[in-house]
Amino acid sequence: MKRMHIVAGAALLVLLMAGAAIASEGGGEHGLPWGNFIARTINFVLFLGIIWYAAGKKIKELFTGRQDKIRNELADLDSRRKEAEGKLSEVEQNIANLNKEREAILEQSREQGERLKAAIIKEAEAKAVQIKAQAETAIQTERKVALEGIREEIADMIVEATEEILRKKLKAAEQQKLVDKYIKRVVLN
Quick one: average pLDDT of 1-17? Predict the structure, then answer.
């Protein structure tokens, strides 16, 4: 039914155009060859009908296929857009989570740094106490050694000085008493 409307519309259009063409000629002297015109019009309508019969389905499929293809592409683009929006929101969520994770990692690193700092300070203080104790011990030992060295030197000097003085002034018995007295004094100190 639709085909008939299309063919009739095309035929009417051809007739109108032919009439306009003839009217523009001015009618001429010879008159209008209506037989020839009708034959050509029928020939044209038959030609259109044959083309429509032979290729009408293909032409219709071409246009409807093109429309379907465009609809499918639009639907595909719409689904892709929705999918991209979903992925975008997911990426934005991941970025927000990354910021939170970064803050958590930084806070954790700060806490570890503070604990490490406290441990290093505590260890350094312990080592300082240990070094101080070792230094005190070394000082005491060095002091004792130095004192003993000085005592020995003083004792030797006293003994030498005493011997010399005693040789000059004292007799042998007095000299022995004096030496024993200083030796006892040095040994007791």
Answer: 73
